Amino acid sequence: MGTVTEVYDYLRLLYARAGTPHCPQCGRPVRPQSAEQIVEQVQALPDGTRIQILAPLIKERKGNHQGVFEDVRKAGFVRVRVNGELHQVEEQIELDRYKNHTIEAVVDRLVIKHTAESEEERTSARTRLTDSIETSLVLGGGIVIINDVTNPEAAVDLLYSEHLYCPYDGTSIPEIEPRSFSFNTPHGACPDCQGLGVKRVIDPEMIVPNPELSLQEGAIAAWPTDDKQGYYWQILEATCTHFQIPLNKPFGTLNKAQQKIVLHGSSQEVAVEYVNREGAKRIYRTKFEGIVNNLQRRYSETTSDYVRNQIEEYMSEQPCETCAGTRLNPVARAVTIDGRNIVDITHMPVSSALEWGDMLADPATTPLANREQMIAHSILKEIRERLRFMIDVGLDYLTLNRSAGSLSGGEAQRIRLATQIGSQLMGVLYVLDEPSIGLHQRDNARLIRTLKGMRDLGNTVLVVEHDEDTMRESDWIIDLGGGQGCMAAELWPKAPPNNSWRMKPH
Fold this sequence. Notes:
This protein has about 500 residues and is α+β, with helices and mostly antiparallel strands. Among the domains are: about 35-160, CATH 3.30.190.20; about 200-300 and about 305-310, Helicase, Ruva Protein, domain 3 (Orthogonal Bundle); about 420-495, Rossmann fold (3-Layer(aba) Sandwich), CATH 3.40.50. Helices cover about 35% and strands about 20% of the residues. The strands form seven sheets. The protein has a six-stranded antiparallel β-sheet. A hairpin with a 2-residue loop joins β13 and β14. The chain is flat and about 105 Å long. The protein starts with 6 loop residues before the first helix and ends in a 12-residue tail after the last strand.
């Protein structure tokens, strides 16, 4: 519904321009910062803070990295921090090549001073800090580490980045754009369900449609276990023998661990005694992958439409586990405004979504910074107007993620009506077929007010309606047919003189 009314389009724009990205792994806020912004934050540290400016070169990578130390030496730096310990670059630093190591170059060491004796000293200190941070950003690929060593026993690292990059776990985040929140494009869609929100997966209840049957009696409908000389029965029999799973008891009476082994397999190897149709025997050891995993693997690997169609009989649509049915990828779901992501807003009723939009637009209550308020102002105006239009036509109880196919005829008409109101078109003929269907009587006045608003814009609104209130408020009534037979084809236009007129039954 949010897509039909264009609300979701503006929400995508709002989150792309005013949202706060978070790392999808650790949940920490991620913001790109310019070198100038980083300098401002470092200068704001308390007076007398002793810092080291570090450029990250290697992060948790195996190797002895002697070439890295040589490059640092050639660049003119004299210190490096290796796995948290400072070393002179001229030292012979030996690293275990089979362990992970982290290496940072020490670009500069400074003391933050807020009380410089002269303007020249302040300018010189800022220039040195700026140059060191810019050098670190170049060496560190857009990342700089400010190591606060005021208390050497409790040194603290402050990480800054020019990119949408989480320096804590190394997660790179692409640039956030409106298409990042579209489940119809690869940029925003969940990679597992391709933006559908559901996946076709093997359904255990379809594999065992009748749990009253035993495995021996053919409880597994998806496998040809009736053929006791076939491969499927023999590997199933060997597995049940190995794990002491009874073959002659109803499948529903087996405990959960036994059912899990049959359906999902085991990591233990079992001895399978295979007897072919000529009576030749062969014993081999293998792992039983389970019926569900077997069908899923064959479904993904086969190129035969016949095989895929056969396996699809035992599949059902279930919510995608990766995106929980939201259809968006983790990066899009990790962008928030006031602690809510775009999925949270689409799950709200229209009335609650409007309250949220009003809160963001109000300078007294908004959590947005000044810059974000300026960006969001015009976007929020469009969102709030469309939400109000939906409330005016009696749709305040619907959620924005409601599927258009699940709406009643009256609801669908009123949604299109709200969309047209938002477009502010003039000189258009609108034909509505009983838009009050499904609408509570107390909301009828709002619908009539909306229809009059469309008329006042310079449009013609033709409504096929039996609601008395709507007819009383109309400018003209056209009665189709004044009687029976040939009289039914006649048109009887009437202009109601006032709201007190009486309708005469035919």
